[in-house]
Specification:
The chain is mainly alpha-helical and 144 residues long. The protein is 74% helix and 0% strand.
Length: 144
């Protein structure tokens, strides 16, 4: 499915969810942010949310979960929680970076090793023309 359509559908789900927030939570989110979500949502998308279940039990779009996480981090959580979330995000990003760095390093090493091996296999030792003639003459005398 088109990513723009998915994003608009996610905005629809988020808009529906935040409109079911308690007033205290709803008021923490800037009105300009809510207006942007409302403006960009897919009006034809039928949101199917069961409010008797928790968010984690819902079958929400991945983009919806990401947007809700950002809303929580930026507007709803305490400063201490925000610091912890940001710290965990940085840790996760560093681990991902380390894994990617190791993968790239290993790929480069494999490529280098393969290239080196190919170079070794491609090296052809050619005899000098006079040496070949000399060896040919020698072989004639040896066979007699």
């Amino acid at each position: 499915m088109n990513s723009e359509i998915m994003t608009r559908q996610a905005y629809s789900e988020v808009y529906n969810i935040i409109n079911h927030f308690e007033k205290e939570l709803y008021d923490k989110i800037p009105q300009s942010f809510i207006n942007a979500i409302e403006k960009n949502r897919d009006l034809n998308y039928k949101v199917n949310i069961d409010y008797t279940k928790t968010i984690n039990e819902q079958e929400l779009l991945r983009e919806t979960r990401v947007i809700l996480s950002l809303i929580y981090r930026d507007y709803l959580c305490t400063d201490e929680q925000r610091k912890e979330i940001i710290l965990n995000d940085k840790k996760e990003l560093n681990e991902k970076y380390e894994i990617n760095f190791e993968e790239i390093k290993n790929k480069r090493k494999k490529t280098y090793d393969t290239t080196e091996m190919e170079d070794k296999q491609l090296v052809k030792i050619e005899e000098k023309w006079y040496k070949r003639i000399f060896n040919k003459i020698l072989s004639i005398f040896k066979s007699n």
